[in-house]
Amino acid sequence: HVPANDTTYSCRVFDFSSLQKKHHLIKFEVQVQKGHEVLVHHLVVYKCPGINRNLVNSPNYICNEDSDKTKQPCGKIVAIWAVGGEAFYFPTEAGLPVAEPGDTELYIMETHYNNPELKSGMVDNSGIRFTVTPTLRLHDAGILEVTAPVDTNLVIPPHQSNFVSSVYCNESTVTEFLQEYPNGVNVFGVQQHAHLLGKAIKTRVIHKGVEQKPLADDKYYDFNYQDFRRANRTLRAGDSLILECTYDSTGQTNVTYGGYSTQEEMCIAFIFHYPRTRLFNCQSKPLYKRFHTGPVVGWWSYLAPLTSTFDAIDWTNASVIREFKDSLENDQYFYVYGHDSNQYNYTMMDPKSMYPNVPYTEPPNTQCGV
């Protein structure tokens, strides 16, 4: 049953224990109930620790409203689909491992329903179909998520035609987890995600100060067509990543914040690769130090929401916009990365240190006439 709410995140717990031995996931495909194409916005499957096994195949629940934190989606992603996407096939040499020996983690399927007309009495049977095989392929695949935290720290001022928000995964993190692969890991797909203000998304790669061709570059991002970008690239020690989301807020009169609703915003890239690395998540969020006016008792004081401050700003003032952009480009960020032991490490980082000494120059397009 879909509530008569603008935004609902519905969750359900399941497992693969019936498989009894390691399999590879080689294809996933979302089945949207006919007539509900507008209702179902996206679907994500997570692999999470600590979930009570009694919840397997129990009724759906609202993902982030339960006091039991183990029932909330975690950082390990198994499958991702958004509106406009099609079936995803893994390359013939790789598959995502499920039902590995000794693995007790369960899976949460999260479905985002977008119901702006607040329709009531709707029952949805959409879901996801996994194709798995006991015949293991050559490589285990993995997914690295590079994301802005989904909260009010993502700030998009109104009246902007090309406002850029960036997320970072720094060189030391990538090197720490990829140094065991002398030849790097193969990136075979990238899914980039934003909401209605999203105009363009690019996942940039810098190798020891020299920018490479982007892993993915959606110059004309379309909210209604969010499919994977196939890739044939290598990610290696010495690389760093910058995810850039460009927003068009010219039709807005108020600040748009990060959040789960379609009317709020996101900035995420999911990087599918093999062999699987232990790194599964990079997050960064600006601290906006120059905009904090309250007492500071430690660095954590800068994580406090600033919605009242930003809501009161005159965003039609060009000098205010310049100051805000300068803050994003030069002030510290709170930086978090997660790895396979379900542990997160955090530190502060300087965004200026992330940018290349030698920017990438896109070759001229010789395929099109002028």
From TrEMBL:
Q: Does the keyword DNA-binding apply?
A: no
* InterPro entries, per the entry: Cu2_ascorb_mOase-like_C, Cu2_ascorb_mOase_N, Cu2_ascorb_mOase_N_sf, Cu2_monoox_C, DBH-like, PHM/PNGase_F_dom_sf, Tbh/DBH
Which Gene Ontology terms cover its molecular function? copper ion binding; dopamine beta-monooxygenase activity
Task: Report the GO terms under cellular component.
Answer: extracellular space; secretory granule membrane
Instruction: List each copy of the Copper type II ascorbate-dependent monooxygenase C-terminal domain by range.
Output: 140-285
Write down a Pfam family by its short name.
Cu2_monooxygen
Q: Is the keyword Disulfide bond assigned to this protein?
A: yes
GO term, biological process aspect, one = norepinephrine biosynthetic process
Start and end of every Copper type II ascorbate-dependent monooxygenase N-terminal domain? 2-119
Which keywords does this chain's UniProt record carry? Disulfide bond, Glycoprotein
* Residues that span the membrane, as ranges: none
For this chain, the family text in UniProt reads: Belongs to the copper type II ascorbate-dependent monooxygenase family.
In its UniProt entry, what is this protein called?
A: DBH-like monooxygenase protein 1
Q: Which organism is it from?
A: Magallana gigas
